[in-house]
Amino acid sequence: MLARYLERIGYDGPTTVDLGTLTAIHRAHVLAVPYENLEIQFGRENVLDENAFRDKLVTRRRGGWCYEMNGTVTWALRTMGFDVTRVSGAVGREFMGEAAEANHMVGLVDLDRRYVVDVGLGDGPLEPFPLEERGWTDGGSDYRLERLDETWWRFHNAPSGMATSSDFTETPMALADYQSQSTSLQTDPESTFVRFAVVSRRNERGYEALRNTTHLEITDGETIKRHITDGDDYRNTLTRCLGVDLGPEVETLWRIVSERVSAHQEARGEREQRSVNEDH
After folding, report:
1. Could you tell me the pTM of the whole model?
2. Contact 115, 122 (CB under 8 A)
3. Cα–Cα distance measured from residue 182 to residue 170, given in angstroms and rounded to the nearest whole number
4. Could you report the per-residue pLDDT of 192-212, keeping only the tens digit for each?
5. Which of 66, 123, 167, 241 is catalytic?
6. Which one of the listed residues 104, 123, 215, 241 is annotated catalytic?
7. 66 is catalytic
8. 104 annotated active-site
């Protein structure tokens, strides 16, 4: 299965336990495997299980969300012999507080020093980075790592990133420790993972993303945005971002996202009309 994973990410280099291999694996995974939450849109559970991670990302050649993406890369690194720790991540903790704890998974790898592994943001760094306060540029984007206190670190994403920040600890976590958040993120009607169908594919200079019916291309910090209005365009864009054709399920997904966007636009129009009436 490790050989199949390496083929999936297009990596045929050494598997020695060193920084060169860690960097190459991280970069290859980010560039090969898209971030996506489409199973949630179809009402199917993303299961917190390493076998399920590998079946989806490797065997079915799909993408995944943070638990699947970081769960798979940390499994692969551990299988190669790396000293890997999974820890609690908290995307948006600067706004949500402790309610965000464990809504994200982060990996820590110990070599000559400790490195952060995170292939599960969709628009984060291409390479792992040292666990130290610093700012750096990677793949055309600027990032920063800040020490908040004795427990928490804060990763500041690129200005064009979908998540502005992600906090994390150094306390080891088992997969079961993420279960409560995983369930809530997949079932709460207010969860962004429920409200938005997202696919994001990283490239050397930025990323391409599909968020409901909005298509984004970010290159060197510059954003090109367009709105998709027909099913054929949606299928072509989705297939390119995802790397596989979902077949008949694309029609189901197009119906879900187009109806969702239409309902949102209608509700916004009604609010604007009420505001106009009140002003007069």
Report:
1. 0.93
2. no
3. 20
4. 999 999 999 999 998 999 999
5. 66
6. 104
7. yes
8. yes
